[in-house]
């Protein structure tokens, strides 16, 4: 079907979802606004109503990725908990959710963090990235206030957890775990990290 005039219900969302699929299958360099417009059945100029160029699309894709990540982490964190068992359950749920997100879309994840830490990163993108980290920080603070885990900078504890599981996911997506199943390594890392932060 030839491209149609612009009358799409939610072209911005359609383009973001198509772009996410495209980079996972073909890489960031192959991403094309014209191709996405063809797939959406609109004119090649229609995407410019939402993204002035490919870079603007990548910026939006990275920001949207962080927004979705924060949402799934927030769901995983659940309600506030005050017992050791429930705090550990929230910790395990957060790590599993993050690793699943990372393994399902490794190219997007690399794009997200690469663009967030670029010298010219947009303020909105940085804020979206911080929001996803703040979910873990809130869980750490709640656990500290209830005496379940030790005192310390909650942001540093959250960052340590993030670095651990981001690293596992990155190695797993690259096939670099020397045959060790990612789920087993995640479970081992949870136990080791939890032992380290648990209150005496």
Name some characteristics of this structure.
single chain, 200 residues, mainly alpha, 2 domains
Order of helices and strands, N to C? HHHHHHHH
Structurally, the number of domains stands at 2
Report the helical percentage. 55-70%
Strands, total number: 0
Q: CATH superfamily name of the largest domain?
A: Tetracycline Repressor, domain 2
Judged by helices, strands and strand pairing, the structural class is mainly alpha
Specify the CATH architecture of the largest domain: Orthogonal Bundle
Structure annotation, total helices? 8
Low-confidence stretches: 1-7
Question: Looking at CATH, which topology of the largest domain would you report?
Answer: Tetracycline Repressor, domain 2
**Rough shape?**
elongated
Strand content: under 5%
Summarize the main sheet.
Answer: none
Offer a concise description of the structure:
This protein is mainly α and 200 residues long.
């Amino acid at each position: 079907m030839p491209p149609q005039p612009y009358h799409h219900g939610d072209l911005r969302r359609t383009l973001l979802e198509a772009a996410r699929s495209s980079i996972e299958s073909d890489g960031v360099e192959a991403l094309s606004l014209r191709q996405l417009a063809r797939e959406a059945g609109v004119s090649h100029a229609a995407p410019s109503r939402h993204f002035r160029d490919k870079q603007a699309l990548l910026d939006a894709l990275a920001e949207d990725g962080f927004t979705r990540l924060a949402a799934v982490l927030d769901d995983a964190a659940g309600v506030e908990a005050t017992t050791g068992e429930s705090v550990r359950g929230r910790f395990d749920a957060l790590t599993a959710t993050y690793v699943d997100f990372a393994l399902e879309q490794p190219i997007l994840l690399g794009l997200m963090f690469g663009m967030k830490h670029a010298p010219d990163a947009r303020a909105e993108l940085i804020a979206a990235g911080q929001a996803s980290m703040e979910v873990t920080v809130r869980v750490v603070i709640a656990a500290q206030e209830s005496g379940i885990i030790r005192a310390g900078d909650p942001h540093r504890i959250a960052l340590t957890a993030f670095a651990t599981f981001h690293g596992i996911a990155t190695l797993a997506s690259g096939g670099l775990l020397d045959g060790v199943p990612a789920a087993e390594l995640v479970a081992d890392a949870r136990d080791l990290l939890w032992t380290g932060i648990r209150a005496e």
